[in-house]
Amino acid sequence: MATGHFKDGIADNRLAPETYADNFSDLHPPLDHHEALVEADRCYFCYDAPCMTACPTSIDIPMFIRQIATGNPLGSAKTIFDQNILGGMCARVCPTETLCEEACVREAAEGKPVQIGRLQRYATDVAMEEEKQFYKRAALTGKRVAVIGAGPAGLAAAHRLARHGHDVIIFEAKPKSGGLNEYGIAAYKSTDDFAQAEVDYVTAIGGIDIRNDMALGRDVQLSDLVQSYDAVFLGMGLGGINALKADGEDAKGVENAVEFISVLRQTGDLAKLPIGRRVVVIGGGMTAIDAGVQSKLLGAEDVTICYRRGKEDMNASGFEQDLAAANGVTIRHWLQPKRVISHNGKVTAIELEYTAMKDGKLAGTGELLTLPADQVFKAIGQTLVPAALNGSSASVELENGRIKVDAEGRTSMAKVWAGGDCIRGGEDLTVTSVAQGRDAAESIHRAFTSNGRA
């Protein structure tokens, strides 16, 4: 696959220019009008709707599919947006194969579910392309809410608060808004700058002011926000990266998978993005798959994903694992990193130890394996950076390394709510973050309207 030259193991101009465009084209091309009608006609419109129960945002799936089937895509889009204002992105990145489509009766009966995700994309694309807005702001309340993070949770919270007539100021640490939708997912899952188009669509309701390059703990302080605003919503995600805990992991060529994906998403020329000849990815989630597949699509000759447990334990769905295999990525199980081998400070190989379950716990077996590598990506999870809470961590209680919240998203600190990946119980899914942001916004609104204060 690789056709270019390698210097120190890193490829330069590996593929023909047109190959990059083809490799990073839309993973699931949109349905056209006829295809959408045919697919919608497959739905049984179940009265108990197991697909709806499986959706974290509880979209009325049979309703929106029926609306498509009857030639009403705008009505379908409103049904979706009523529950999930980021329904367009969720249609692209949701692991539908383990959520709504897994629960589909067609899946149980035929092994071929209704393509709910692609139908959702069809309807939301129609609405966004026509710039159709379904919501107007309620009478202005004079309440001001600070939102930390312009990712899925923050945007969902901001939109719902704006609908209720509250003013929202979002503080976003990065230059562009969208959070992981912009910086953290595979480029072939969201093409044509869709993340920014969705940010524009969400904020078009009005009353939402996004201030970029404003990080919590650096440019704004939580204690000041609590004093200046009627409520605060924390949706800043996870800023830290777990370490490999392997000797020599500071060698050149050992990189964070999240950062690699972020750079790839923002680059204007994929041919200039450095990629190794032999790439090893450590991890078993969606990020590991995204890093592995995109390495291969960039021209890496050999890509191996190593995971410390078995196939059934991987957080990446079966579809994602199959996608990796289809792109020539090897997935090896029951391996954990022990030592990064380097020469002149540059990684040349990684030593791994085979693992096994002993007395119900994962343990190394002592048997070692060495894989040649000139690039190693860490995709073993992210962590909350408590320092961002400005010394308020004593008030914002943490549990298992994330912010502890109640059923409504309230933290232990008065006037402060949280949602998304930064909270305990977050599932690291866009759709779950949207649900948590939306529900926290409703809780904030109830606090405002029940007693006039949060």
What is the end-to-end distance?
Answer: 58 Å
Helix proportion range: 25-40%
Average residue-wise pLDDT: 92
| Count of folded domains | 3
Assign the structural class, choosing from mainly alpha, mainly beta, alpha/beta, alpha+beta, or little secondary structure: alpha/beta
The strand count comes to 20
Write the CATH homologous superfamily of the largest domain.
FAD/NAD(P)-binding domain
Widest sheet, order of strands = 5-4-3-6-20
Largest sheet: 5 strands, parallel
| CATH architecture title of the largest domain | 3-Layer(bba) Sandwich
Q: For the record, what CATH class of the largest domain applies?
A: Alpha Beta
Annotation field: number of helices: 17
* CATH fold-level name of the largest domain: FAD/NAD(P)-binding domain
**What amount of the residues lies in strands?**
15-25%
State Rg: 23 Å
Strand and helix map with partners:
Elements: E1 5-7, E2 10-12, H1 17-23, H2 33-40, H3 50-54, H4 61-69, H5 73-83, H6 87-93, H7 100-103, H8 105-110, H9 116-129, E3 144-148, H10 152-163, E4 167-172, H11 180-183, H12 194-203, E5 208-212, H13 222-228, E6 231-234, E7 240-241, E8 254-256, H14 257-266, E9 275-276, E10 278-282, H15 286-298, E11 302-306, H16 318-326, E12 330-332, E13 335-343, E14 346-358, E15 361-372, E16 375-378, E17 382-383, E18 398-399, E19 402-403, E20 416-418, H17 430-451
Parallel strand pairs: 3-4, 3-6, 4-5, 6-20, 8-16, 10-11, 10-16, 11-12
Antiparallel strand pairs: 1-2, 2-9, 7-17, 13-14, 14-15, 18-19
